[in-house]
Design brief:
Layout: H1 8-23, H2 40-45, E1 54-66, E2 70-78, E3 94-101, E4 114-129, E5 132-146, H3 149-153
Parallel strand pairs: 3-5
Antiparallel strand pairs: 1-2, 1-4, 2-3, 4-5
Keywords: Signal
Organism: Dyella soli
InterPro entries: OMP_Slp
Length: about 170
């Protein structure tokens, strides 16, 4: 009977290689203990059910509005990866309004930038997206992080498996 056996060196190297690949991704930036796993459109459908729930959400900044005592950042939500980076290549999870105490400089929260935040759901507000009526969940922000391009690409492994010939420039 012929059985295939990996050479000893490959058997030893395989666990190390797998560990190295998983170690590439940065850790989540916020602790998620006690947070509710729900997406913005789920809250918009039943805001009273999620009143005062703690969340970790992320997405793409649409715009910033400053008021005398607070700022509101409209965000198009996206699913988060294991490092809590918004995955803008995925289906959006609904829009929400992040309420930040004080003044939020719009240059620090530019339209199109990706952000992740922790906060507590504080209700909802009807508004419009274009000409369509929309219900925006409101989130009182505890912490917020606007991602840089370098942060978004760091920790992503550049190992790709496939058959064929290709050229990649990184």
């Amino acid at each position: 009977m012929n059985t295939f056996r990996l050479p000893t060196i490959l058997r030893a190297a395989l666990p190390v290689a797998l560990l190295a690949l998983t170690a590439c991704a940065p850790a989540p930036i916020y602790k998620t203990t006690g947070t509710v796993v729900v997406v913005p459109y789920g809250v918009a459908e039943a805001p009273e059910r999620y009143a005062n729930a703690d969340i970790v959400w992320g997405g793409q900044i649409v715009n910033v509005h400053n008021f005398p005592d607070h700022s509101e950042v409209e965000v198009l939500g996206y699913p988060l990866d294991g490092s809590q980076r918004p995955q803008a290549n995925m289906q959006g999870t609904g829009r929400f309004i992040a309420i930040i105490p004080g003044y939020a400089e719009s240059l620090n929260y530019p339209a199109g930038a990706l952000m992740t935040l922790t906060g507590r759901i504080s209700g909802s507000r009807s508004g419009k997206v274009g000409e369509a009526m929309y219900v925006f969940p409101l989130v009182n922000v505890g912490q917020a992080h606007v991602w840089t391009a370098d942060e978004m690409s760091s920790g992503k492994n550049n190992v790709h498996f496939g058959v064929g010939v290709g050229v990649g420039i990184h």
